[in-house]
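Example S7 (structure tokens).
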């Protein structure tokens, strides 16, 4: 089977998840990327242009599947899959999910929820009558970059972001207060299945850095209704929402599998070959029944830098088992690296994921590991 994967920069999800899964399924894998020097045996292609993507694939050989796990390439990849008549996502759903203003508009028009939102183009004036507090974010941003709570003086906050992002559109949204949750789904041509979800712990406001995710299986009908309104169903999707006093409200819909090693964590908690399941859907196969999600507990803890400086000491890549808890540490930086705080997910030093029989034992194992193997920045 000829399998094409579109990518920008290398990621652990692709390198350690999807590529081994594709090979295990017997696929001949071709990586298409605009950064071929960063991927082994990749083919250069302007993957942000669906016309160039289709042309390159036709030249290389007719596909059995076309897939991407990149936030930025879902629409283009879906269009290419549709051109070749392959299973794939609806490109309109991909576009609406990625563009936070379009997402809000679609949900309001469908009568699912009405959250204040306005789009600020690069030259648009900043309104003075917004319902503070609000959240300012890039229209198509990722990794919490330039996402901030604004309680007054929106014009100043917009000016700061525009200096870093000239020419980009921004979105101003109502601040949704309450516990943050995720819903993880996977769909095939028969429909959508709920895999589970996480409780998310954020760092201090006004920023929105995710510091910890704890496995907390959910099945929220409001979120599923929102996904249906957006046309999201096929393939993997990671949806973030808030349990507000007025009910659940969507934060964002990421039309790909959850990241920051929570995809590996979810596979461990469920005890399934998750990456293979996702690829099988794109190969036209059916997703198996999701097993009982209550038999294990898992968490992913992002180790976030609390200061700028130089990394003097750091634990390495390792896995340990103790007291029935399996724990993995993945460093994202190295000793000697200079760290400059950005108040985004770019401040992650490493990530710990742990799976065990219950919450308390898992949390104790994580705290013990962190105390014994600290990151030191001076």
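Recovered sequence:
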């Amino acid at each position: 089977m000829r399998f094409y994967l579109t990518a920008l920069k290398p990621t652990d999800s692709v390198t350690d998840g999807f590529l081994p899964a594709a090979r295990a399924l017997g696929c001949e894998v071709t990586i298409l990327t605009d950064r071929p020097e960063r991927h082994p045996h990749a083919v250069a292609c302007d993957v942000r242009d669906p016309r160039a993507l289709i042309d390159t694939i036709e030249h290389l050989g007719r596909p059995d599947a076309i897939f991407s796990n990149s936030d930025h390439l879902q629409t283009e990849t879906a269009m290419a899959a549709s051109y070749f008549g392959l299973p794939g996502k609806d490109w309109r759903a991909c576009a609406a999910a990625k563009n936070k203003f379009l997402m809000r508009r679609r949900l309001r028009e469908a009568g699912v929820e009405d959250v204040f939102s306005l789009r600020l183009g690069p030259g648009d004036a900043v309104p003075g009558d917004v319902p503070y507090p609000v959240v300012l974010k890039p229209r198509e941003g990722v990794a919490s970059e330039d996402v901030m709570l604004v309680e007054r003086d929106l014009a100043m906050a917009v000016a700061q972001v525009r200096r870093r992002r000239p020419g980009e559109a921004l979105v101003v949204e109502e601040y949704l207060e309450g516990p943050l949750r995720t819903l993880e789904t996977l769909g095939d041509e028969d429909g959508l299945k709920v895999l589970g979800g996480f409780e998310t712990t954020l760092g201090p406001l006004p920023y929105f850095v995710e510091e910890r995710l704890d496995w907390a299986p959910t099945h929220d009908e409001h979120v599923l209704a929102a996904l249906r309104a957006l046309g999201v169903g096929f393939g993997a999707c990671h949806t973030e929402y808030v349990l507000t006093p007025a009910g659940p409200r969507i934060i964002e819909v990421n039309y790909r599998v959850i990241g920051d090693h929570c995809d590996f964590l979810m596979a461990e908690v469920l005890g399934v070959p998750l990456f293979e399941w996702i690829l099988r859907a794109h190969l036209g196969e059916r997703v198996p029944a999701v097993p009982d999600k209550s038999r294990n507990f898992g968490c992913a803890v992002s180790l976030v830098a609390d200061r700028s400086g130089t990394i003097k000491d750091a634990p390495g890549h390792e896995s340990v088992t103790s007291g029935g808890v399996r724990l993995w540490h993945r460093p994202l930086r190295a000793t000697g690296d200079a760290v400059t705080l950005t108040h985004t997910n770019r401040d992650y030093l490493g990530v710990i994921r742990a799976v065990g029989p219950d919450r308390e034992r898992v949390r104790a194992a994580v705290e013990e590991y962190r105390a014994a193997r600290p990151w030191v920045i001076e």
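Notes on this example. The mean pLDDT is 95.
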